Amino acid sequence: MSVEQTVKMPAAPRFARLRTFLDGDLVYGFLRTPSAVISAIVLLVIALTAIAAPLLSPQDPYDLTQLYLDKAELPPIWTAEGQAPYLLGTDVQGRDIFSAILYGSRISLMIGFASVIVSVMIGIVVGLTSGYVGGRIDNLLMRIGDLVLSIPTLLVAILVSAIFRELLPVSMRDAFTPVILTTSIAITSWVQYARIVRASTMVEARKEYVLAARILRLPPLRIMLTHILPNVMTAVLVTATLNLGLAILAEATLSFLGVGMPVTQPSLGTLIRIGNQYFFSGSWWVVLFPALQLSLIILAVNLLGDWLRDALNPKLR
C-alpha cells in the first residue's frame, strides 16, 4: 500500500456519517414534503436577510442621525407618492420600513432562539434530575413547575421583565432589554421540557443499559449525560421547534404591550405597536408589512415543526 493511499484512507469515515444522514429516511421525507421544504427555505431567507441587514438595508433604523422627519409617512415605492430608496415606505419618524423589518426580524429571531435554548437547558437539567433521582427532589421540582404553570405565561413574563427593569439603572435598561426578554420567556417555558425529559428519563432509567451502567458504578452525572440524555433529545428537539414560534410571538406580544424592545431598537412587535397607532389615519403600510413578516415567520416555524414531529414519530413510519 502506497503512502498516498495510507493518507487518504482516514478521509472515508469522515464523510460516512454525512452520507448516511443524507441517504436516511429523514432527508428523504423532508425533500418529498413541499410544505417542509418551502418553510425551511422561507426561514433560511429570513434568517440570512436579517443577518445581512447592514448590507441590504438602505438605512440604519437605530441611527437617529439617519432619520428625517421630512421623509415621514411616505407610502410604498409602487404608489404615486412613493420615493426611492424607501421600498415599503416610512413611519412617522422617517424610519425606512424595509430596513426596520430586517433589523427587527434579527432581534425577534435572536430572542426567540436564545429563549428556547435557555429554556431547553433548564428543562433538561430539571427533567434529568427529577426523573433519575426521584423522591423528594422530584416532588419539589415538579411542584415548582406546577406553580409556574398555574400563573398565566404572559403575566409571569411581564412581572419578570418589570422586576429586572426596576433593578437596572435607567441608562442600562435598553442595552439589557434583549437579555431581560430572553430570561422572561425562558422562565415561563422550561416546565414543558422538564416534564418531557422527566417522563423519558423514568422510562430509560429502567432499561438494561442503564442498569448495567449502575452495576459498573458509573457516576450518576455520567449516566444521565452520556446514556439517558441522547435517548430523550428527539422529543425535546420536536418540542423546541414547535415552541420557537411561540417564543417569537411572546417577544412580539411583550413589545406590543410596551414592556419589550424600546422604540430606538424596535423588534417586529414594537413596529406593530407603533404602526397600530396610525393604521386608521391612512398609514396602513407601517403596521401591515411588519405584521406580515411576523406571521410568515411563525407560520413557517409551525409548519416545519409539524413535519418534524410527524417525521420523528415512530408510529407513523
Low-confidence stretches: 1-11
Structural class: mainly alpha
Strand content: under 5%
Please give the radius of gyration in angstroms: 24 Å
List the helices and strands and how they pair.
Elements: H1 3-8, H2 11-22, H3 25-31, H4 34-51, H5 53-56, H6 97-133, H7 135-150, H8 153-167, H9 170-204, H10 208-215, H11 220-256, H12 268-276, H13 285-311
Subcellular location: Cell membrane
Transmembrane segments: 36-56, 107-128, 140-164, 176-197, 232-263, 283-305
InterPro entries: BP-dependent_transpt_permease, MetI-like, MetI-like_sf, OppC_N
Task: Tell me what you see in this structure.
This is ABC transporter permease. Residues 105-305 form the ABC transmembrane type-1 domain. Its main location: membrane. It is a multi-pass membrane protein. InterPro entries: BP-dependent_transpt_permease, MetI-like, MetI-like_sf, OppC_N. The protein is an all-alpha fold and 317 residues long. The chain has a domain at 106-317: MetI-like fold. The protein is 73% helix and 0% strand. It has 13 helices and no strands. It has helices at residues 3-8, 11-22, 25-31, 34-51, 53-56, 97-133, 135-150, 153-167, 170-204, 208-215, 220-256, 268-276, 285-311. The protein is elongated. The relative contact order is 0.13.
